[in-house]
């Protein structure tokens, strides 16, 4: 190796960085890999001692059990509710964020502080009042009720993310659109939103992760199988007298696959959307 002290120091730093990164990746992926491989094991091999990482006998019985227990219905409910929640949250949040970012009005800064403050409120503390509200309007145990709640819960973070990104966009482009005859909403729809695709994707992924994975709100606001979401269905494999580890692991794997695939496809926009709002303002 070259005796140059600078090169030796750089090599040590690179080696240390590689070891640290490898350790982080291992601790992040090892539980997922263990869960995926264990979901392919027969029931009697899942908790065997000593544990076996690679399945001796591969079976799909646990996945067949999940699908047979109306798993596709529950996945469909989660997908429908998540998709509509994303559309509603982005539609309302983009208009609100654009108004706060581009228009001067009394209480503008207070409104943003309030929006950020609302994000710190635990959702569990809102369950009783929201349950009462939905009961009064007849939306308990409905898809619409969950969509409205999820949209309301996620609006603050959508507004906050889009507000920062809108501030980073050049105002001159919007002025040119207004000169061309576009209204404020037209400018937002035809100019600002196309330029804000990374921020929209990042906000959409935040909303998706919440709506797809939520358990507390869904189990409180729903009771029938026709509205039940997948996380609530997974809970029933815990049981009162024991845990059904096979179906539980299979259901967990089924639940995380869509999120992972979507993130892999959109990660470039996600990272750009998170960092783009820091350019200005």
Automatic annotation (TrEMBL):
It is a multi-pass membrane protein. Gene3D superfamilies: MetI-like. It is found in: Cell membrane. Residues 75-266 form the ABC transmembrane type-1 domain. This is Carbohydrate ABC transporter permease. Its main location: membrane. GO terms for biological process: transmembrane transport. The chain crosses the membrane at residues 14-37, 79-101, 113-140, 146-166, 199-221, 245-266. Belongs to the binding-protein-dependent transport system permease family. PANTHER family: INNER MEMBRANE ABC TRANSPORTER PERMEASE PROTEIN YCJP, MALTOSE TRANSPORT SYSTEM PERMEASE-RELATED. Pfam families: BPD_transp_1 (PF00528). GO terms for cellular component: plasma membrane. It comes from Oryzicola mucosus.
């Amino acid at each position: 190796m070259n005796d140059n002290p600078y090169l030796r120091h750089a090599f040590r730093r690179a080696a240390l960085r590689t070891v640290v990164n490898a350790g982080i990746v291992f601790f992040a992926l090892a539980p997922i890999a263990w869960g995926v491989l264990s979901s392919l094991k027969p029931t009697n091999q899942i908790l065997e001692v000593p544990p076996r990482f690679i399945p001796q006998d591969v079976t799909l019985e646990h996945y067949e059990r999940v699908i047979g227990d109306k798993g596709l219905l529950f996945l469909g409910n989660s997908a429908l509710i998540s998709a509509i929640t994303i559309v509603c949250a982005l539609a309302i949040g983009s208009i609100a964020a654009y108004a706060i970012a581009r228009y001067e009005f009394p209480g503008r800064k207070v409104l943003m502080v309030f929006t950020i403050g609302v994000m710190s409120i635990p959702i569990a503390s809102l369950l009783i009042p929201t349950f009462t509200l939905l009961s009064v309007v007849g939306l308990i145990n409905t898809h619409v009720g969950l969509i409205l709640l999820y949209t309301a819960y996620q609006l603050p973070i959508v507004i906050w993310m889009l507000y920062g990104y809108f501030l980073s966009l050049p105002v001159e482009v919007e002025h040119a659109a207004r000169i061309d005859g576009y209204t404020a909403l037209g400018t937002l729809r035809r100019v600002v939103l196309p330029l804000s695709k990374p921020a929209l994707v990042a906000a959409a992924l935040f909303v998706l992760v919440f709506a797809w994975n939520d358990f507390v709100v869904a189990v409180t606001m729903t009771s029938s199988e026709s509205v039940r979401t997948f996380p609530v269905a997974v809970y029933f494999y815990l049981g009162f007298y024991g845990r059904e580890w096979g179906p539980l692991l299979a259901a967990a794997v089924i639940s995380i696959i869509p999120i992972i695939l979507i993130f892999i496809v959109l990660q470039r926009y996600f990272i750009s959307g998170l960092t783009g709002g820091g350019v200005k303002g």
